[in-house]
Design goal:
The complex is a heterodimer of chains A (225) and B (483). With 225 residues, chain A is mainly beta. Chain A is 13% helix and 39% strand. In chain B, 14% of the residues lie in helices and 50% in strands. Classes of the chains: A mainly beta (225), B mainly beta (483). At the A-B interface, helix 1, strand 1, strand 2, strand 5 and strand 11 of A face strand 3, strand 4, helix 5, strand 16 and helix 7 of B. Strand 2 of chain A pairs parallel with strand 16 of chain B.
Chain lengths: 225, 483
């Protein structure tokens, strides 16, 4: 063999070193690997729900009933003592949840959110809801209002009364989305719209009102997570 | 004839893919019985030159195999800045119905082989680590799509399989020639399990009601697990934390799970042309009893959102729960779905039995052609069938091989080996292309190492006796042909 072994070894070493120098090995550094920043996953999930009653959207009952001028009405409770309140309270905006912890953040972040409000209203008045997200330690510094259209009142013109189901959707603006992502608390305010339904001396405190808020959105991985 | 039947048997059953993590090396190394990696895998392989062979961690190298039915590049892609990213949509596009990947690492810590009573006695201490993962296409689709599309409203991951074992083996072997043709060897191995996990029917579900008002999260499955670090449990026996301090030291100091295994081997050569060898390895078990558990998950939770009633109602009313407490309770209930419970349990892990059959044909002093079959049997099996060609120069060999891994992958590999006066050095792979871009290859393996030799004489370079420098006699020497 004219080609000496040592020459073959040198050639092989050169070949191997050439191959190694051109290797694409950097993909295997585990610390550099994260989830693709372009990946967005669609999520639908319930956010809030509750089988509530008419009285729940009138006042924060942890606080005393204000002594407002004007006509009064008796809230009729089936199993407990009736409560007399100013009529104006029903139609005035009131805080019904002042600080509900909203801790949904994780190693992902929302890039778009649509909230679907579904209200089954058995009361005689259309219901208004308004959500605000805020930082827990900054009471008063609330994010932009998230307010769906009013939820229709039940049809009291027929008997038995038929509850009305209304579904309203709110797609969050970028400003609202920022507060949605960063906020740690939820403020819920509510009031009834006076549609002219004639109040008597009493009104049932316990017209059922079923509320659910469903989140439909897209999430992606936080790159700094 | 027996060898042919065995060989045929192995050829037939390699047609069905297996799924158990195994320890196998490049088939070409079995051409040379004096290669110290081949000696690790066949106790009937030993030297014939009275040399003492030894090596230790740092120089003894390693054997690593990655095998799957998808490429790592299917899962991890590069973005515009060349940063590696886990890319679920790309993985989904490339995925099969069942997607599995296994890795196997063998690290010889100490190896010695010495001549003893007409044969060779050997000892080695190996660290072994195997892992296996399986994920179904539906699970990847869910990770890409979420639960908004109608097809994924009701999602079941199907079985997600995670299995792995880390163990060390202390092997004492002896091999000797039984006659002029047949060598036989046996190896007794003390095994010590350092970590183990094996899931069974492990799955997750997400069911979304048509109106989106209820999401049912569910989990199901059992597993066996042994960890080298202490586990702190909650009241419900789920894992609260792992005491991972000095985890590596605890791993290497774990000797509470003993086991035992036997290797048997033979080699047969009735003339210079044909060589057969075979081995049965790891016929044994490990008894896990230290920090070992039965693991169970079987839970579900209907999430309907955070209950406004609790937040709104006056605290003195029935069913009221403080909203902070409520959020914590619901999060805990969701976590519980994904927190399997543990129960202390001793169990026996049967080692996957491995077989090796090798045949080579010496065409000339320079050229050898070989066929090697390696298989691993457990609940299923995994096979590698290798066709090799070796070119031999006195102390230096180059070999090329074609390997079939089950029926999923075909790879072209090769390697080289040099045996000097004081050491043997070799490197072998079954996928040369993988050296350039491992991520774009489903299967790749590499074995390499250096072994020191004492009392060894380097083979004389045959070219010093080249026929071209003399004349060849046409007559046979020393005897007459009898009729």
């Amino acid at each position: 063999m004219s080609f000496k072994i040592r020459n073959i070894i040198v050639l092989i070493i050169l070949l191997v070193s050439g191959v190694f120098n051109s290797c694409i090995m950097d993909e295997f550094r585990m610390n550099d690997i994260s989830v693709n920043e372009d990946l967005e996953i669609g999520i639908i999930t319930p956010l809030f729900s509750g089988n509530l009653e008419f009285r729940d959207f009138i006042h924060d009952w942890k606080k005393p009933v204000p002594d407002l001028p004007g006509p009064k009405v008796v809230l009729d409770y089936t199993d407990s003592t009736d409560v007399t309140i100013p009529v104006e309270m029903i139609f005035d905006e009131s805080v019904v949840i002042d600080s509900f912890p909203f801790l949904i953040q994780g190693s992902y972040e929302f890039v778009s959110v649509e909230l679907t409000f579904r209200v089954e209203n058995s009361s005689p008045y259309p219901l208004n809801l308004k959500l605000n997200f805020y930082e827990k330690k900054e009471w008063g510094n609330f994010g932009p209002d998230i307010q769906p259209a009013p939820f229709a009142a039940a049809d009291f013109s027929q008997f038995p009364v038929q509850p009305e189901i209304t579904i309203n959707k709110v797609e969050l603006t970028q400003d609202q989305l920022i507060w949605f992502k960063e906020g740690k608390c939820v403020l819920l305010r509510a009031w009834y719209h006076n549609n002219g339904y004639l109040l008597g001396d009493t009104i049932s405190a316990q017209f059922p009102i079923k509320v659910s808020i469903i989140l439909i959105g897209k999430v992606k991985a936080k790159q700094d997570a | 004839m027996c060898y042919h039947i065995l060989f045929l048997f192995q050829l037939l059953i390699l047609l069905v893919p297996g799924k158990v993590a195994v320890s196998q090396i490049n088939g070409s190394v079995f051409i040379k019985p004096d290669n110290f990696y081949a000696q690790l895998y066949n106790p009937a392989y030993f030297r014939t030159d009275e040399a003492v062979a030894f090596t230790f961690v740092g120089l003894s190298g390693a054997s690593f195999i990655n095998q799957g039915n998808f490429e790592i590049a299917d899962v991890i892609t590069l973005n515009a800045n060349n940063d590696p990213r886990v890319d679920f949509p790309n993985f989904y596009e490339a995925s099969k119905q069942r997607n599995y990947i296994r890795q196997d690492l063998t690290l010889p810590i100490l190896f010695a082989m010495v001549p003893f009573k007409n044969g060779y006695a050997s000892f080695f201490y190996n660290e072994n680590l195997s892992a296996y993962s399986l994920i179904h296409q539906d699970a990847i689709a869910f990770l890409s799509n979420g639960n908004i599309p109608d097809d994924y409203r009701n999602f079941d991951s199907e079985e997600i399989k995670l299995a792995g074992i880390g163990y060390r083996e202390f092997a004492f072997g002896y091999g000797k020639p039984l006659n002029n043709f047949l060598n036989a060897g046996v190896r007794i191995k003390l095994l010590f399990g350092a970590a183990q996990a094996d899931s069974k029917y492990w799955s997750y579900g997400v069911k979304t009601s048509p109106d989106g008002e209820i999401i049912t999260l569910s989990s199901l499955g059992t597993a066996r697990m042994m960890l080298p670090v202490p586990v702190n449990l909650r009241e419900n026996n789920s894992i609260q934390s792992l005491d991972s301090e000095n985890a590596i030291a605890k791993y290497f100091g774990e000797y509470g799970n003993p086991g035992f295994a036997v290797d048997l081997g033979f080699s047969y050569q009735n003339n210079e042309r044909h060589f057969f060898s075979g081995a049965l390895r790891d016929f044994g078990f490990i008894r896990f009893g230290s920090n070992s558990y039965d693991v169970t998950q079987n839970d579900s939770f209907d999430f309907i959102g955070f209950d406004l009633l609790n937040a709104i109602r006056y605290p003195e009313e029935p069913d009221y729960t403080n909203s902070n407490e409520l959020v914590k309770l619901i999060k805990d209930e969701i976590r519980e779905v994904y927190q399997p419970t543990l129960e202390k349990r001793k169990y026996t892990y049967m080692m996957p039995v491995k077989t090796l059959l090798h045949y080579h044909y010496q065409h000339s002093t320079r050229h050898i052609f070989a066929a090697t079959s390696q298989m691993s049997f457990s609940k299923n099996y995994y096979s590698v069938f290798t066709l090799s060609a070796l070119q031999n120069w006195a102390n230096f060999q180059i070999f090329e091989n074609l390997s079939i891994h089950n029926l999923n992958d075909l790879t072209i590999g090769g390697g080289l080996r040099y045996v000097g006066t004081h050491a043997e050095i070799f490197a072998a792979t079954d996928n040369l292309i993988a050296f350039y871009h491992p991520a774009e290859n489903k299967t790749f393996s590499i074995s390499f190492g250096v072994c020191f030799l004492l009392n060894h004489k380097k083979t004389v370079n045959e070219e010093k006796f080249s026929p071209r420098k003399g004349k060849i006699s046409p007559y046979l020497p020393f005897y007459e042909e009898k009729r």
